[in-house]
Amino acid sequence: MQQLEQYFTGNTGRLINKWQNYFDVYERYFAEYRNKEVVILEIGVFHGGSLQMWKSYFGDKAKIYGIDINPRCKELEEENIHIFIGSQSDPIFLQEVKNQIPDIDILIDDGGHTMRQQIASFQFLFEKVKANGIYLCEDTMTSYWLEYGGGFKRRGTFIEYAEGFVDSIHAWQSTQKGFKPDSLTTSVASVAFYHGIVVLEKKKIDPPFELQTGNLSFAPDLPLPKSFLRKMKYTALLLLNKVLRGMRLPGFIWR
Questions:
Q1: Given strand 81-85, what is the order of strands in its sheet?
Q2: Percent composition of the chain: helix, strand, coil (DSSP 3-state, to 5)
Q3: Per-domain residue ranges for the chain?
């Protein structure tokens, strides 16, 4: 059993509510930040137990911040833990938070879990995360729960929104005019999906380039003659796949 799960299991302090599989994910991404001068922001204070868990785990050098809409959560502040009261989907409030705190090493969205809240928080706060930081949104299973506005393949869910992150990190390879590198392409090293959690690792990303080393194992195939018929066939293939792509249908390849 790892450090965070040990803390959780032996907790006799303030209430903490977590899914069991989260602890392995936390340890995977958070371990390198322990005992360093890190800035942690957690959206969703609840009863304050998880803020105390982060304080214990990351050490005395960590600055811990929380966001919650419940004004009573302000009572849960203590040394190295500061709490802001407001809505995670309110851009005016989020701007105030951004102005008052340092850049963030780790952001954990454990807030209201509605689609609007998760998407709005990401859109407004992701840029506040440091270039080598972590953005973690948890309880993403609500993207499938009706009471949170979810549903399988339903438009507007956070999972459907987050699937676009995968497209963004591959945008360097796009040949479509309407799909080019964006801010995520140049700042996200990886996107990982776990049960109930989506994690983005930030890092400055330059355009990728292909490398090759070693020797040929066998002689390469000779190129086929560039006949008129072959050129026509290739052109037809490209046109057909362009039409299919526009209709979002599977591609076609001649065998």
A1: 81-85, 63-68, 39-43, 104-109, 129-138, 197-202, 188-194
A2: 40, 20, 40
A3: 3-202, 224-255
- Sort 19 into a burial class: Cβ within 10 Å, 0-12 / 13-18 / 19+: middle
Query: Under DSSP, is residue 36 helix (H, G, I), strand (E, B) or coil?
Result: coil
Q: Helix 91-100 and helix 115-125: axis angle, to 10°?
A: 40
Please give the Cα distance from 154 to 221 (Å, whole number).
47
What whole-number distance in Å separates Cα of residue 47 and Cα of residue 68? 10
Name the pTM for this structure.
0.88
Residue 149, Ramachandran bin (φ over 0: left; ψ between -120 and 50: alpha; else beta): left
Tallying the residues shown for the chain, one arrives at 255
Pairing assessment for the beta strands 104-109 and 129-138 based on DSSP bridges = parallel
Q: Is-contact 199 25, C-beta < 8 A?
A: yes
Supply the Cα-derived Rg of the chain in whole angstroms. 23
Q: Which amino acid is at 120?
A: A
CATH entry 2.40.70.10 includes domain 3-202: no
Q: Single out the residue of 53, 45, 30 nearest to residue 105, CA to CA.
A: 30
Distances in Å between the Cα of 183 and the Cα atoms of 121, 127, 186, 188, 203 are: 16, 9, 5, 8, 11
Instruction: Tell me how far apart the 2 most distant CA atoms of the chain are, in Å.
Output: 79
Rounded average pLDDT per 10-residue block, the chain, 255 residues: 90 94 97 97 97 97 97 96 97 96 98 96 97 98 95 95 96 89 96 98 94 89 67 69 71 65
Q: What is the β-pairing status of strands 129-138 and 188-194? A: unpaired
